[in-house]
Amino acid sequence: MPVGQYIVPRAFFAYGTITERTLFMHCHRAIKQKFLDIRLGIKMEVTFMTNLNNSAEIVGLTNSEAKLLQERYGKNNIVPEKKESFIRKVLEVLKEPMFLLLLVAATIYFILGEPRDGIIMLIFVVAVIGIDVVQEWKTDKTLKALRNLSAPHITVIRDGIESTINSEDLVPGDLMIISEGVKVPADGFIIKANDLCIDESSLTGESICIWKSVIANNNNYWKNNYCYAGTLVIQGRGIIKVEKIGVETEYGKIGKNVYDAKEEATPLQKQTSTLVKICAYIAAILFLLVVMITYVNLMDYSFKDRIIESILSAITLAMAMIPEEFPVILTVVLSMGAWRLAKKNSLVRKLPSVETLGAVSVLCVDKTGTITMNKMTVKDIWTIKNDIKDFSTIMGMACEVEAYDPMEQAIIEYCEKNDITKDILFSGTLIKEYSFTNKRKMMGHVWKKDGGIIVATKGSPEKIMALCDLDKELKKDISSKMKEMSLRGLRVIAVGKMVIEKEEEIPRNLEQCKLEFLGLVALQDPPRETVKEDIANCSRAGIRVVMITGDNGITASAIAKDVGIIGNDNIITGDIIDTLSDEELREKVKNTNIFSRVVPEHKMRIVKAFKENGEIVAMTGDGVNDAPALKKADIGIAMGKRGSEVAREAADLILLDDNFSTIVYTVKDGRRIYDNIKKAIGYVFAIHIPIAFSSLLAPLLGIGSKELLLLPIHVVLLELIIDPTCSIVLERQPAEDSIMEKKPRNPNEKILTSNLLIKSVIQGFVLFIAAFGIYYIYLIRNQSSVEVARSMAISIIMISNLLLVQVNNSNKEYAYKSFIKLRKDKVMWSVIIATMVAIVVILYTPISSLLKLAPLTIGNMILVLLISVSSIMWYEIVKFFKNR
Ligand code: ADP
Ligand code: MG
Questions:
Q1: From 375, 407, 602, mutation site for ligand 1 pocket: most ligand atoms within 8 A of C-beta
Q2: Is the pLDDT of residue 35 over 80?
Q3: Distance, CA of 605 to CA of 261 (rounded, Å)
Q4: Could you give the 3-state DSSP secondary structure of residue 444?
Q5: How far apart are CA 376 and CA 380, in angstroms?
Q6: The dihedral of CA 370, 371, 375, 376: what is its sign?
Q7: Contacts 24+ apart (CB under 8 A), 727-730
Q8: What is the chain's Cα-based Rg?
Q9: Measured in whole angstroms, how far is the alpha carbon of residue 296 from the centre of its chain?
Q10: pLDDT digits over 730-742, tens only?
């Protein structure tokens, strides 16, 4: 392109009148330089490119057009979506060893010439499969909805207005707006670019920032007026007209599927599948044992009958032994937990994080916006020359014209209140910007105004003071004033100015400016209302709250004191972190709760140090530079409101309301979910013991195969009740009152602790003795009433099952208390009522004879109730002694 001529597309100016300033503000950096060149006297022609009809360009598609286009081009998925078929789901359930056993049992019945038993068995099998498939389908739906919620978003212009949609729904022709931190979701032409710089390393392997503009300036394969899916916006803003989506994009062609986040088994899922395996092995051994014993016992039967009968008894045992509920419990409880959290503004992106949440021991949070409200107001001003008007004007001129930073908004608001309107502030021409970076911690604007040139700067006092020529006395004054303001918990910003004669003399960067120090402004950003209480809750729960901020240490310390962070006079600054070795930092973090003047890069080291000390760390972040630390943390938390797409993608959790309280709630709920899984596992263990041992002991005692306590149909019948109990009722249990008074759990702790195992085994055995004892007594007392004996035992197990859930709700709280907490829960009541109805149906209708059961007399029923209550409720007495 010839020097001196520049083509600027009309689209730049679609939003307003074309003044010199807007032209400047909306230009690509290269063009900006050219404009500066014009102002510096170099002649340059500006041609407006009129072939881009601006209004049509900026309005974008209509919603109905987008819909039609989506029908034609499909969804914007880099990896084509796999459809899970219903049949496959059923087949998956059928693959479980449990169902193989069930089918074998049913087949044997048919072989035995007892088709009626076989059919009943099959009906039960279908019912159990039905429950499982419905559960799986529900969890799948939940997980999918969650994924949708945390899916990448993009802002588009449709029907002429900006709206946010799932990136998946982009169609060719859409206008999308990209800005710092966005991961570009589709390929398209740049039709507007301000300072737009994109990292294309995911495609090209070169990690340099590529400046983008509307006009092509080379013939490379990777065009500079085009942007590509999968790349990352480092700086600036742009409007893109989407050309290609999904697999059509350059990124899609490569087939590098980042979105293909395979659901890996969570640590708990791995643990429980080991447990299931162990149980299965034991079942296999016992299976053989029972086959042999039954075979020996049935001396007077024919050979064929002996074989069949012994296999049948053994199958009953094997079915009773395999805790096939474990995997179901986990997926249901974890996914439902995540779903409940989503309703409370906390989006879990990765299921295993739900488990980890409960173990969090250190919570590293940003100060501004998370602990504080990020609503600033100017509280105090101190000027060297006592000229507040001049000070305020320079302070205002150092802000962005379209301020979005709450601090700058507060400054402008202050100026306007004192009759220095925006029109006055920004009446000149902005000819250069020194941009704010986390490292620089200051910024400046160069204005041409009333014939003169003024550099207006603001930033952290240390940094601004370094650019001023101050005598000792003044330095001391400024420092003491700054300290006084900071001690009040205010954020202190220094303002400086420089007057320049000629445009050639404008320094290249801010560090080269020689500033006149004007004064200090102090801003208040009050802590969020509930933060104090939340931090107190955290300390009670053994969770350390660590504050991370770019602000100065004294301000941070004052706020920390305000909200009750302990050790608030022990502060480490970013500069100190730079001088520390990894080991030294590891020592330091043991008792430091405030990190001030840090840049995002420091966060990575802080997380690492905590982790190496054995802590489980949750850390918040929002910027592009926070992503590595978020990945490194055990729980990376992205801010949903101000967080960048990159931070969201790196995070385990997205906080939709950026609120500290939500983090604490999430950790608490993580503990509840983990507790409930533990309770469910303990329950499954306990309830399987009476079933398994009854199946084992009956053959050992030489009880004939027709007189067994549990026939295969009965085992399936009980499974029908156990499954929903643990996955529905236990999943819904509210948190125990003391949940935030315990220390975080040891991350290496196994889900089935020895305590839990002992408790479950004892509970199971007591129930076994009660049920089997009654059955056996009835059986030997009167041989003909095997149906009654069996009915007694099965009713005891079914009623005890309901009680067991209530009792095991807590190791401390009494059962009636947990019951009251859920008294309005429809689901819990449905399970209770369904169990009652089931007992009535299987005992008192014609079905009872099909199931080889018999009606019980009122006297027997009362006995059943008494035995059930005493075989379970004894644990309440244990609680009583524990509590004392
Ligand atoms: P925090 O971690 O509290 O959000 P920041 O990184 O935003 O802190 O800011 C760190 C410091 O940089 C502030 O204390 C202030 O001195 C300076 N600073 C922040 N924003 C601006 C701004 N818009 N203009 C000038 N200085 C700023
Ligand atoms: Mg900030």
A1: 407
A2: no
A3: 27
A4: strand
A5: 12
A6: negative
A7: 727/135, 727/325, 727/328, 727/329, 727/332, 727/333, 727/680, 728/332, 728/827, 728/831, 729/805, 729/827, 729/828, 729/831, 730/329, 730/333, 730/676, 730/679, 730/680, 730/683, 730/805
A8: 35
A9: 58
A10: 888 888 888 999 9
Q: Is 434 in the pocket of ligand 1 (CB under 6 A)?
A: no
By C-alpha distance, which of 821, 802, 785 is closest to 871?
Answer: 802
Q: Look at residue 263 in the predicted model and tell me its pLDDT.
A: 55
Q: Domains for the chain: give ranges and CATH numbers.
A: 2-57 (no CATH), 155-258 (2.70.150.10), 268-338+673-733+750-883 (1.20.1110.10), 346-372+528-658 (3.40.50.1000), 378-467+485-521 (3.40.1110.10)
d(CA 41, CA 747): 68
The one-letter amino acid at 862: I
Query: What is the Å distance from ligand 1's center to 375 Cα?
Result: 14
Q: What does pTM read for this prediction?
A: 0.82
Residue 870, pLDDT above cutoff 90: yes
Q: Which ligand is nearest to the CA of 600?
A: 1
Tokens (6 digits) for 223? 């065009």
| Percentage of the residues of the chain whose pLDDT score is greater than 90 | 47
Query: What sign does the dihedral 725-731-737-740 (CA atoms) show?
Result: positive
Under 8 Å CB-to-CB from 410, ≥6 apart: which residues? 376, 377, 378, 523
| CB-CB contact of 384 with 519 (8 Å) | yes
Give 653 or 54, the one with higher predicted confidence: 653
| Residue 400 alpha carbon, nearest atom of ligand 1 | 23
104 C-beta neighbours (distance < 10 Å), count: 16
Give the H or E element holding residue 483: helix 472-487
Residue type, 572: I
- Sign of the Cα torsion 205, 210, 214, 215 reads negative
Ligand 1 contacts CB of residue 438 (under 6 A)? yes
Q: What angle do CA 414, 420, 423 make, to 5 degrees?
A: 115
Structure tokens at 462: 């240390």
User: From ligand 2's centre to the CA of 219, what distance in Å?
Assistant: 40
pLDDT reading at 367 higher than 90: yes
Average pLDDT over residues 817-838: 88
* pLDDT tens digits, 394-409: 999 999 887 878 999 9
Closest ligand (CA of 371): 1
Q: Is 684 in the pocket of ligand 1 (CB under 6 A)?
A: no
SS3 197: strand
Q: Nearest Cα to 193, choosing from 168, 172, 176, 174?
A: 176
Interatomic CA distance for residues 162 and 176, integer angstroms: 9
DSSP state of 337: H
Higher pLDDT, 784 or 300: 300
DSSP string, 363-407: EEEEIIIIIB----EEEEEEESSS-HHHHHHHHHHTS-TT--SHH
With vertex at residue 337, the alpha carbon angle to CA 336 and CA 343, rounded to the nearest 5 degrees, is 90
Beta-bridged to residue 459, according to DSSP, are 442, 494
CA angle 24, 25, 30 (to 5 degrees): 60
- Locate all alpha helices (DSSP H) within 1-114, ordered by sequence: 20-25, 29-39, 54-59, 63-73, 86-95, 97-111
Residue 12: predicted pLDDT:
38
CA distance 78 to 170: 12
Beta strands 442-449 and 429-434 are: antiparallel
Q: For every residue of 830-860, which 3-state class applies, written as one string?
A: HHHHHHHHHHHHHHHCCHHHHCCCCCCCHHH
Nearest residue (by CA) to ligand 1, atom 7, is: 550
Q: Are 495 and 527 in contact (CB under 8 A)?
A: no
Residue 97 identity: P
User: Is the per-residue pLDDT at 206 higher than 90?
Assistant: no
* pLDDT beyond 70 at 159: yes
Going from the Cα of 36 to the center of ligand 1, the distance in angstroms, rounded, reads 28
Tokens 């520390």 label which residue? 580
